[in-house]
Amino acid sequence: MTEHVRIENNNGILTLTLARPDKKNALTDAMYGKLADTIESAEFDPSARVILIRGEGDMFTAGNDVGEFAAVAAGKSEGSRNVVRFIQSLARCTRPLVAAVQGRAVGVGTTMLLHCDLVVLADNAQLSTPFVSLALVPEAASSLLMPARIGYARAYEMFALGETVPARSALEWGLANRVVPLDKLDAEALALAQRLARQPAGALTATKKLMRNGEALVAQMQAEGEQFAQRLRTAEAREAFTAFAERRPPDFTKVA
């Protein structure tokens, strides 16, 4: 439901709030669509000088709604392309992106941060990318960006073992710019967004384009997406999502 993404534009700062706290801000197709529409539209809106992404409640996001994944794995749904639109909108976004992250940031909740220009973590933040544990592969160009950011060894451990990275380690590794007490998170992220909004927009855009090749990232996303779609329809994925629904550990030794 699009009401699960709240949009506010004040003083040059376009704030996107993930507002589904009862479901730990798990992202649905409709939410991806609303996020993509808003980020794409911001490219043509001079009043949107900075985009701030935050989550309501005690968690940034649990990642993709597992129910939607499970429906595809079970052959009950063809899946959605809105998630593709969303991650590609992040790659192509020329506006400064700021993220405020509290609690868990799972899957795309972590990989989207690789596209943000400034990331502020609450001291209780925990980042994880458990794609392989769900019989899937990394997305959002994270297979390229994560090793480049934190090194192959750390990135592989995050992907292959689903290891959770606490806020302080994320800061030390270069996945964040700040770690602040939870009660200071929104104020710190807003202050940084306000500073960016006062900077010359043209110079910020030119700088970001020099530092990031959006189309190269989109190409990586497309390669990942092909593998992701294939993996989602495997016996391994069916076992992963069946086990999740049954609240038991998956047994991948039973599937080829």
UniProtKB/TrEMBL annotation:
Keyword Protease: no
SUPFAM superfamilies from the UniProt entry: ClpP/crotonase
Pfam annotation, one family: ECH_1
InterPro entries: ClpP/crotonase-like_dom_sf, ECH/Chromodomain_protein, Enoyl-CoA_hydra/iso
Keyword tags: Isomerase, Peroxisome
Record's subcellular location: Peroxisome
Protein name: Enoyl-CoA hydratase
Lineage: Bacteria, Pseudomonadati, Pseudomonadota, Alphaproteobacteria, Hyphomicrobiales
